[in-house]
Amino acid sequence: MSELPSAIFLMGPTASGKTDLAIELCQALPCDIISVDSALIYRGMDIGTAKPSADELRLAPHRLIDILDPALSYSAADFCRDALREMAEIAGRGRIPLLVGGTMLYFKALLEGLSPLPSADPAIRAEIEAEAQRIGWQALHDELVRIDPVAGARIHPNDPQRLSRALEVYRISGKTLTDLTRVQGEGLPYRVHQFAIAPADRSLLHERIERRFDLMLAQGFEEEVRALRARGDLTPDLPSIRCVGYRQMWDYLAGELEYDEMRYRGIVATRQLAKRQMTWLRGWPDVTWLGSGESDNLARVVASAGAA
């Protein structure tokens, strides 16, 4: 184990201060940053994703941002392939891969390996969509509960994306999502130092989220989404446009929401994202917690990971 190269994971909910600490770490340790964020991958989506600024990127370049057009999809398997390639290149130069972000599924896939789930099948997916139109998502959820009670209890009837995927997996493979995800991969060939950063008080995180959303609006978030809509090839069903904030602004520009309602829903959606991220992290093994904005965060990470 001691012969493995080191890597640092810096995880946390949105608006918790991950980027600032990561840039500090790059000044203190020989680190190169790899973004672990399912929104930062998209080109042309800068303001609403809180993408690092040009000045921040000059100080500390981030890998795996701006790598994909918003019309395309990107999976956890795609991320693992790209992240492992970047980690190997960084470690090969005697430096430390610093993985920073809040997409916890990506971190989990890296640590544990990917489950052997079948690739998407457009024909079966279309068949499920047609059934949903005919009999409703609740009936399809009832079907999932019958074949896979564990997944049925975890997936809400109002979550068509995950519900459709669970049924698709079963219809392709004949095995349930629960059975297939019990199979673990080989894991990560690095000595990983894991840190999570968040405010001690949830209300402080909510305040940070609200301030950041208002800053995005002031920086031109509306104009950014107008430009995306003007392309003509993007729809609200794409993963890029389902990103928090983007869907609400998209609906506002479509005339479905008033401005104040868009702002409110965007902030609420971001809080809900942060809550999901915190739920992941509370059950995360072997993680050292840091407080947002605490003066000793840098020293604590350097003491743990820098001495390895």
What topology emerges from the helices and strands here?
Elements: E1 6-11, H1 18-28, E2 31-36, H2 54-59, E3 62-63, H3 76-92, E4 96-101, H4 104-112, H5 122-135, H6 137-147, H7 149-154, H8 160-173, H9 177-181, E5 191-198, H10 202-219, H11 221-231, H12 246-253, H13 259-282, E6 287-291, H14 297-306
Parallel strand pairs: 1-4, 1-5, 2-3, 2-4, 5-6
Helix pairs in contact: 1-14, 3-4, 5-6, 5-8, 6-8, 10-13, 11-12, 12-13
Account of the 3D structure:
With 308 residues, this protein is α/β, with parallel strands linked by helices. The chain has 2 domains: 6-114 and 185-306, Rossmann fold (3-Layer(aba) Sandwich); 122-181, Orthogonal Bundle (Histone, subunit A), CATH 1.10.20. Helix content is 53%, strand content 11%. The chain is built from 14 helices and 6 strands. The chain has helices at residues 18-28, 54-59, 76-92, 104-112, 122-135, 137-147, 149-154, 160-173, 177-181, 202-219, 221-231, 246-253, 259-282, 297-306; strands at residues 6-11, 31-36, 62-63, 96-101, 191-198, 287-291. A 6-stranded parallel β-sheet has the order 3-2-4-1-5-6, with helices on both faces. Helix 5 (122-135) crosses helix 6 and helix 6 (137-147) crosses helix 8 (160-173). The longest helix has 24 residues, at 259-282. It is globular, with a radius of gyration of 20 Å. The chain starts with 5 loop residues before the first strand and ends with a helix.
